[in-house]
Amino acid sequence: MFPGPWLISEPVSRKSPQFQVPARPAAPTGLRRRGRRSRVGAGLAVLVTGLVLAGCNSPTFGASHGTDVQGQDIAKLYSGMFITGLIVAVIVWALIGWCVFAYRRKGRSIIPKQFQEHIPLEITYTVIPLVIVIVIFVFTVITENEVDAVTSHPAVTVDVTAYQWGWIFHYENSKGVTLQTQGAVRALPAKRGYTASVYPQLVIPEHQPTKIVLRSDDVVHEFYVHAFNFGRFAQPGVRNVFEFTPTKTGVYPGQCTEYCGLYHSEMLFSVRVVTPTQYHHWLSYQEHHLNQIPKHYPLTQL
Description:
This protein is of the alpha+beta class. It has 4 helices and 12 strands, in the order E-H-H-E-H-E-E-E-E-E-E-E-E-E-E-H.
């Protein structure tokens, strides 16, 4: 029987015609230069556009700088993780670009040498990501512990109750000071802004810890203050306890960021940080006006 072609064991050289790739016609030098410049320009345009669209406002990258101690810790962790991600991304992009341009086909070429393993390289690209993940994990645990820590004797304790669709702020150790969303909310008041008198305002002292005891009366809500880089769920039957230590006076917007029904967008509030002396004046004012409709404390009386 005549043996088939698959039985032929004659070695074939890599320089044989079947291993060679047909060459393309060479382009004029000027066209090659213009083509190279256009590719580089397109790559830079893509990189810049990506950074702009990502809101790359270093060093916070879209987060707040933090107007309280806990928020500043969160901002540091977030910035560190973002910068680490950018460094890894730049290295990966550089290696991809190097492979694309350094090993592109130039005229006639043959299939490159093939290999199945490179132990030092494999160890490198395994160990480096592992070390990065371990470092991020350690700093995340440290930051979470600092953010979730609650002092045993806070300066102020506020019970915050979320409901459809508003907030109730009750100050413990006061003479019944309670602020809440006024009346049944509708879609129109939100256009007045989060400082409108229909929305409650949480007043807390600067440089002193304020303990928040958060709960919900009906569905799941979320207590969120962007300036503090903080959000926490308000869940029925669950008491979530956390703490703020403001470092800067001012008025900051707050809202519910967990969809909770028809008027979810109306669950607005504000946080006013004042000096300790101004806080005691505000608390005294509220205690002497308990029978009046709660409104924002006049700025002129702080």
